[in-house]
Design goal:
This protein has about 250 residues and is an alpha/beta fold. Helices cover about 20% and strands about 30% of the residues. The chain has one domain: Purple Acid Phosphatase, chain A, domain 2 (4-Layer Sandwich), CATH 3.60.21. The protein has 7 helices and 14 strands. It has a 6-stranded mixed sheet with strand order 1-14-2-3-4-5, with helices on one face. A 6-stranded mixed sheet has the order 6-7-8-9-13-12. Strands 10-11 form a two-stranded antiparallel ribbon.
């Protein structure tokens, strides 16, 4: 019974990864992926309080925040609240495209003051230093490869790419980003801690290489969130609780 409770436990967990970067002061960035309009308490306070507890300097929203089936209200409660408190940037996921109104969703998110990146970049000043954020649309836009190939970080800058799909990491890393953050894999849905990182992930199939966690791809650090989806998933998560990620950028050396 205890094992079953552990296996199907869907309470939110927080995972922290440290990434060295050409900076002088540490910077904390919360990564939210694959919310899928799921519910986190009254007015989404469970999730919002978990974010606040991390004391982030900024928020990275890495796609599938809105679901194509569940009502959008829960997603926008989170987005509105975060936009009031933190600098935020967002890229699309496949489910935003599956709604048939990805462009409108992007416009509504931008109207909240969140920077929507669709093959673009923006520079944030955080703790007195510059962090350059790049973002690309999901592959369902038909523009992913074109957008990635047009983004070239400058030598010596702290550069972060937001890209929903982790299976495209080789082309992301080839551009020379300090860090890439993705979601989409849902942690492989089923896990066996210490034995199997993930059983199946969209567009990766069985035993996905990039199910969730921290990876090093050449000189690029790569973080894949296991995502926040709960009631939106047709197949229950097993040994794979929903995840809020904190990335700490720490000075090299």
């Amino acid at each position: 019974m205890v094992l079953l409770l552990w296996a199907f436990d869907n309470r939110l967990v927080t995972k922290t990864y440290q990434v060295t970067a050409p900076m002088t002061e540490p910077v904390r960035l919360a990564v939210l992926a694959d919310l899928h309009s799921c519910e986190y308490g009254e007015d989404q306070q469970d999730l919002l309080q978990a974010v606040a507890a991390l004391a982030p300097d900024g928020i990275l929203l890495v796609g599938d925040i809105v679901d194509d089936v569940l009502p959008e209200k829960n997603a926008f409660l989170v987005l509105e609240a975060l936009a009031r408190e933190y600098p935020c940037t967002y890229v699309t996921g496949n489910h935003e495209y599956w709604t048939g109104r990805a462009d409108q969703i992007c416009e509504e998110i931008a109207a909240l003051g969140i920077q929507v990146l669709r093959g673009e970049q923006v520079t944030w000043s955080l703790r007195g230093q510059e962090v350059v954020l790049y973002g690309v649309d999901d592959a369902d836009s038909g523009k992913l490869e074109e957008q990635v190939s047009a983004l070239t970080p400058a030598e010596g800058e702290t550069s972060i790419l937001l890209a929903h799909r982790p299976e495209e990491i080789e082309q992301y890393a080839a551009r020379g980003f300090t860090l890439v953050v993705s979601g989409h894999a849902h942690g492989g849905q089923w896990r066996l801690p210490g034995l199997l990182n993930g059983l199946y992930a969209p567009h990766q199939g069985l035993f996905p290489r990039w199910a969730g966690g921290f990876y090093q791809v050449g000189d690029t650090a790569f973080v894949v969130s296991r995502g926040l989806a709960r009631e939106s998933t047709r197949v229950p998560r097993i040994f794979n609780p929903p995840e809020l990620v904190l990335v700490e950028l720490i000075p090299a050396g």
